[in-house]
Amino acid sequence: MTDTEPDMKSDINSVAYGEEWSALWEQDYGTRPDTDDAVRTVADLAAGRPVLELGVGTGRLAVPLADLGLPVHGVDNSPWMLAGLRKKPGGERVTTTEGDLVTTTVPGRFGVVLLASYALFALTTQEQQIDCFRNAAAHLEPGGAFVVEVVSPQLLEADICRPVKISADEVVLLVSTAADRITQRLQTAHVYLRHDAPVKILPWDSRYAGPPEMDLMGRLAGLELSARWGGWDRRPYTAASAKHISVYTLPEGPV
Hints:
Blueprint: H1 12-16, H2 19-29, H3 35-46, E1 51-54, H4 62-67, E2 72-76, H5 79-87, E3 94-98, E4 110-115, H6 126-138, E5 140-151, E6 160-166, E7 170-176, E8 185-194, E9 197-207, H7 211-220, E10 224-229, E11 243-249
Parallel strand pairs: 1-2, 1-4, 2-3, 4-5
Antiparallel strand pairs: 5-11, 6-7, 7-8, 8-9, 10-11
């Protein structure tokens, strides 16, 4: 192991986000009911300007955004995810960079920086999350928007065990401990049950942040909250919302 490689024995998220997980990601999460709404909303915010997606994965959002004619650049720390993106029809139109959400920089300025699929919470310290906001802000042109999709904190404060997929030969479960309200940390895993294979468990760690804390992260990065919705269809965010889409804008003049 070199100095720049993660310690795979101690970094649970590196293990979870490796080759095996990348192969399963497209199968289980390559499509979602709100994908069209997400693409439409991001395209409206971009208004023809370039889009940078942090944690681009296999391109669920990046590829259709590029199909609309938007210049799209995707960053991901998984070479296997990026390989899956490039294999998709239209994937060649997305420029990609292998790197993390916190320190990776790419050339140019963007009308939208996108962080979807709850990826912010995969950063397991407050410092990393703040630095992610700062990295996003550094890539925005004046008036540009940092768009973040996260799960609502109240859903994380109880144990979870729910099916992700049920078929004739496979059941996939999402299980999670109740979040520690002091550290805001929780452990989650996907459990794969197949009739012809051993049980497979892919765990990861998370740190959640509530809307007020995220808004402060935005202010520390020089950003202003401009919208918050309860879904990609731009419904109002309420205490009953399962997630929120928060839009932080870089002011066009001095803050």
